[in-house]
Design brief:
Length: 115
């Protein structure tokens, strides 16, 4: 196991085929609010999810008929060494779907969990 004080979920996103319905549901259930974001950077609509004025996650329109990672929930976990964590995940049998991304922002990568 990689040793770190981090390993906390620092962001999450929901990919939804019905963003308006998701906004109604989560808004009524948890009191979350939604504001459009990143319109110039993404190919699909995206909203910041907020609770009591603080950004807690994101909601994005799913690609119609697409399999994961384009549907469902994505978690972002803080790690000390992204490349070491990617290598360790591969050694444990995961598929890395996207290598390091967003080089000018916080670097991240994605992989699928084991079934």
């Amino acid at each position: 196991m990689l040793e770190s004080a981090a390993h906390s979920v620092v962001w999450w996103e929901i990919e939804s085929a019905d963003p308006a319905g998701s906004q109604r549901f989560y808004g009524e259930l948890f009191g979350w609010t939604f504001s459009p974001a990143f319109e110039e950077h993404l190919d699909r609509p995206y909203w910041l999810v907020q609770h009591t004025g603080k950004g807690i996650g994101g909601l994005q329109r799913a690609v119609p008929g697409a399999p994961p990672p384009h549907t469902g929930v994505r978690l972002y976990v803080e790690v000390d060494d992204l490349e070491a964590t990617i290598a360790r995940a591969r050694s444990l049998g995961t598929t890395v779907e996207r290598e390091r991304t967003y080089p000018k922002l916080t670097p991240c990568a994605s992989g699928s969990s084991l079934e």
